[in-house]
Amino acid sequence: xxxxxxxVIGAGIMGCGVAQAIxxxxxxxxxxxxxxxxxQAAQRTLRSNIRQQKFFDRSAPxxxxxxxxxxxxTCYDGLAEVDFVVENxxxxxxxxxxxxxxxxxxxxxxxxxxxxTSAISITRIGAATKRRDRVxxxxxxxxxxxxxxxxxxRGHHTSARTLDAAxxxxxxxxxxxxxxxxxxxxxxxxxxxxxxxxxVFLVQDxxxxxxxxxxxxxxxxxxxxxxxxxxxxxxxxxILKSLERLYEAYWDTKxxxxxxxxxxxxxxxxxxxxxxxxxxxxx
Length: 283
Fold this sequence. Notes:
Number of domains: 2
Shape: globular
Order of helices and strands: EHEHHEEHEHEEHEHHHHH
Mean pLDDT: 94
Oligomer: single chain
CATH class of the largest domain: Alpha Beta
Low-confidence stretches: none
Strand order of the largest sheet: 3-2-1-4-5-6-7-8
Number of strands: 8
Distance between the termini: 46 Å
CATH architecture of the largest domain: 3-Layer(aba) Sandwich
Strand content: 5-15%
Structural class: alpha/beta
């Protein structure tokens, strides 16, 4: 499948990671966010991340060459000619639905939409567009550059052709995909969010400190990171939103967020990106 031009909506951690992967593969990409402040922050993040990648991957193109392929803008008009769009906005339905209405107004009919979501139904996202068969879920893991595999979600109307396009896109950026069916949370987050949430309850209930919980998972199970270190990497605010979406989807109390999560979000303890979460990241 011939995919030449790409768009990425949302210039946060995940959006920057996807845009970086596309530029690393030598393709142009439109990176869109709400305002110039966010895009300037993304520019700094991308330059730092690409420099770091270049240090470990000498075969990567020069930093400035990769950055030149990423056009940052607040305008959707540049998406008129793209073949594949990856959407990475916050896990809030109104925000996502608004993005897809704007995409439908600009993108050519054959353009594929890939929703990078942790918990929102791909079928529901497809229903918010005029091309339900050309919408697919694509759950990238953080950090994007270091994760070789992506969870691909088939919505109720997702066509075989769209799945082929998703596979071709992933292959073009050096990644593989595992296709699963559409239920909120899919495979990864239905398991991961429960694990993290229960680990938070352990800390909240005084069973163990965060460092002890994570040490048990690293040293007893051989996990590279403990669940609370993982939460800090993803973002405590993102964990809370994902659990809220899962609870709304299933009405199952097992997805009820630990009160400590809400307290931490209210306190601004969002993990690595804020400098502190369950662990401290002060330099």
